[in-house]
Amino acid sequence: MTQAQVRFQNFEDYLSFDDGTENLYELFNGELIQVPPESGKNVAIAGFLFVQFALLIGHLRVRGQGLELEVRGEPKNRYPDLTIIREEHIEQLEKRNTLRFFMAPPLVVMEVVSPGELQRDRDYIAKRMQYQDRGIPEYWIIDPQLQTLLVLKLVNDFYTEIGTFQGSDRIFSSQFTNINLTADQIFIASYQ
């Protein structure tokens, strides 16, 4: 017997949906697409950065992949690998870990690129456009295959490159100028 696919007319309908699981879904053209699990390497990198930022600004302002971000286009939502939220978001996210359009954008989103051309295009092109449109001040693209970290800063509604960091390059963030990390530290963390 075939089960009918649930269709959602809008994001509000989607937000009220509960299938009784812990699965993460993206809403694409009104249909749910399950978000696949991350690779161990990607989880290790995101975990390392979570700890670094938690030590710097406190764990309540650092959110892992479970944070949902409402965006324009398709899909209608994203789950960044790591998100640095504003102080005001802590209370706003108590009931549901979803940043809506009516809330201020987070300060920084970070994506760890998964292997494959489709995933690369999604992080470097599609998500970049959606995060730019959402007004997120800074976007990090962490690429384990290239061993590079690209930091983008929102300037006049468009992302401009702060820099591409690799090896012993010290990472510069316009949002967190006191971060003391090199690209090597981030990529080595995925092997330990």
How would you characterize the overall build of this protein?
This protein has 192 residues and is of the alpha+beta class. It is 28% helix and 25% strand. The protein has five helices and eleven strands. The strands form three sheets. A six-stranded mixed sheet has the order 3-6-8-9-10-11, with helices on both faces. Strand 10 (148-155) and strand 11 (158-166) form a beta hairpin. The N and C termini lie far apart (47 Å). The mean pLDDT is 92.
Q: Report helical residue fraction.
A: 25-40%
Strand order of the biggest β-sheet: 3-6-8-9-10-11
End-to-end separation: 47 Å
Order of helices and strands: HEEHEEEEHEEHEEEH
Poorly predicted segments: none
Number of distinct beta strands: 11
Tally the helices: what do you get?
5
Rounded mean pLDDT is 92
Shape: globular
Beta-strand portion reads 25-35%
> What's the main sheet like?
6 strands, mixed
Structural class: alpha+beta
| Rg, Å, rounded | 17 Å
Assembly classification: single chain
Question: What keywords describe this structure?
Answer:
single chain; three-stranded mixed sheet; 192 residues; alpha+beta; 5 helices; globular
Set down the secondary structure blueprint.
Elements: H1 11-15, E1 25-28, E2 31-34, H2 40-57, E3 62-63, E4 68-70, E5 77-78, E6 82-84, H3 87-92, E7 98-99, E8 108-112, H4 117-134, E9 138-143, E10 148-155, E11 158-166, H5 183-189
Parallel strand pairs: 4-7, 8-9
Antiparallel strand pairs: 1-2, 3-6, 4-5, 6-8, 9-10, 10-11
